[in-house]
Design a protein that fits this description.
Number of strands: 14
Bound molecules: NADPH dihydro-nicotinamide-adenine-dinucleotide phosphate
CATH superfamily of the largest domain: NAD(P)-binding Rossmann-like Domain
CATH architecture of the largest domain: 3-Layer(aba) Sandwich
Structural class: alpha/beta
Strand content: 15-25%
Radius of gyration: 22 Å
């Protein structure tokens, strides 16, 4: 499902016409062409600041160094001392920024976890204001703060509460050239989860994620945050529902790219498409209706037949049956509730009861920004997608003691058969009403799911991450 306007304005004729008519040109996003690489920032200059020396500044310096970034500071740089101390302690080199000499940074990381009052927020201005006129296209901005309930007093909590508003606005200002800006809220003691989150947000794997807040709360009981390794899903058995086509097929492909063996599930009527998708990635096709009363038990049996337990399950299969509430037949309500919600709950319950999850298993559910903003004609769909957000939050607390994590991804407008069916004017408006002025691709959801399914997100639990280019709908 191609975005013809985006393609056209990036041709030489299209560029001239857009310039002559003063039309906005949606940026061409740089997406990942391969899996996660250890030295993912080998060609990047990263400008870094911190409100104080501490565990977060240290974790940031070590993470950027392990990614191969060239860490930059300058004499006038706000937050210099915290970074200098962290770098000295970690024996990591920092060098002087050459941005004023035409070598701009394309990565910006600011640790403001120590901001504890209104005056401390001046650091945000001092760090970003002098830099933002020369940010190259597809740059990455990450601010790191603390989540609600983590601060010593009300004033510190107030200062930290400024950050979501700040980052959402910065993302709206920066998106025109494909730059993203996101906030990591790291809980005190969970600093070892920062590197994984940075690896995602500072890479092309998160090209369509902007204006978002990701809480890093710490790994579940018994789970060690492992050092980064390439192909982090090697040896993992992953189940993906709705894998025959669309977003599910992309998820299966990206999980396989990172080393997982995928069991792809789809309705028996889609067996041949599912078979083709799975054979292209060396996966296992499992024709199964997820609303089957024993779907979870059947999946456990398929995994056991492959000699293993389920390390990852992605509950992606979903349907829409849109009707205004006043006109909706009861069976359309029931069908959507069962596929999008009831089947997920039943399946997880059966897998848990049957001890079918491997150690440190990761569950990822697919929500939707429709579940956050609501849409006329989608009361059934939005109820399920909203429930998924509450489900992962509640289940994270329940599963934490078992070493299992559960998170959700909420896609925005994604170019699939589902959105191709939207009337043309509505579709065009939905596409452009985002900070990146375009819809996402199935691979954008697949990348975010893969992050959540991988050890990179070891410290993330109970979260819902929107992958929507900061669509104004549901903002
Ligand atoms: P598609 O309709 O393209 O694909 C969904 C797949 O799930 C289909 O292969 C479908 O099979 C399968 N499926 C449906 N019901 C069942 C079932 N009972 N058992 C097994 N498989 C089933 O959807 P998308 O790829 O667009 O969406 C994937 C997920 O992303 C969904 O949860 C959707 O709600 C969510 N989402 C999508 C957005 C978008 O813009 N596309 C936006 C927000 C959220 P069949 O074709 O036979 O029905």
């Amino acid at each position: 499902m191609a975005d013809k306007i985006l393609e056209f304005v990036h041709t030489s004729t299209g560029k001239q016409i857009a310039a002559a008519l003063g039309l906005p040109v949606p940026p061409m996003l740089k997406r990942a062409k391969a899996g996660y690489a250890e030295k993912s920032l080998a060609n990047s200059n990263a400008l870094v600041g911190a409100s104080a020396f501490g565990p977060v500044a240290s974790a940031v310096v070590k993470a950027l160094d392990s990614m191969g970034a060239s860490i930059k500071v300058s004499a006038d740089l706000a937050g210099l001392d915290g970074i200098k101390q962290a770098a000295a302690k970690a024996k990591v080199d920092v060098s002087i920024s050459q941005a004023d000499n035409g070598v701009p940074e394309n990565v910006y990381v600011l640790d403001v976890t120590a901001a504890a009052n209104v005056a401390d927020l001046r650091l945000l201005y001092d760090f970003f204001n002098p830099r933002l006129r020369k940010v190259p296209s597809n740059s990455r901005i990450v601010v790191i703060g603390r989540p609600r309930g983590d601060c010593k007093d009300a004033l510190a909590e107030t200062a930290q509460s400024s950050l979501p508003g700040f980052i959402r606005s910065l993302a709206k200002e920066s998106g025109k050239n494909g730059t993203t800006a996101n906030l990591i809220q790291v809980k005190t003691g969970a600093e070892n989860g920062i590197e994984g989150a940075l690896r995602f947000f500072l890479s092309p794997h998160s090209a369509f994620v902007t204006g978002q807040v990701l809480p890093v709360v710490g790994a579940p009981k018994g789970v060690k945050v492992a050092a980064f390794s390439e192909k982090p899903l090697t040896g993992k058995l992953a189940v993906v529902t709705g894998a025959a086509r669309g977003i599910g097929a992309a998820i299966a492909e990206v999980l396989a790219r990172e080393g997982a063996t995928v069991i792809g599930v789809d309705r028996p009527a889609d067996e041949s498409t599912l078979g083709a998708t799975m054979s292209s990635i060396g996966g296992i096709a499992c024709p199964l209706d997820i609303t089957d009363a024993d779907a979870g038990k059947k999946l456990a049996a398929v995994a056991a037949g492959k000699g293993g337990k389920i390390d990852i399950i992605v509950h992606n299969a979903g349907i829409t049956r849109d009707k205004m509430m006043r006109n909706m037949a009861a069976h359309l309500w029931d069908m959507v509730l069962d596929v999008n919600l009831g089947a997920i709950v039943r399946c997880n319950d059966q897998l848990l009861a049957g001890d079918a999850f491997g150690a440190n298993a990761r569950i990822v559910c697919i929500s939707s920004i429709g579940g956050i903003a609501g849409n006329a004609g989608q009361t059934n769909y939005a109820a399920t997608k909203s429930a998924v957000i509450g489900y992962v939050d509640a289940m994270a607390k329940q599963l934490e003691g078992k070493g299992i994590s559960i998170n959700a991804i909420a896609p925005g407008f994604i170019e699939t058969q589902m959105t191709a069916a939207i009337p043309v004017v509505t579709r065009e408006v939905a596409r452009r009403l985002s900070s990146l002025s375009q819809g996402g691709l199935p691979v954008d959801i697949a990348e975010a799911v893969t992050f959540m399914a991988s050890p990179l997100a070891a410290g993330v639990n109970g979260a819902t991450l929107r992958v929507c280019g900061q669509n104004l709908v549901g903002a």
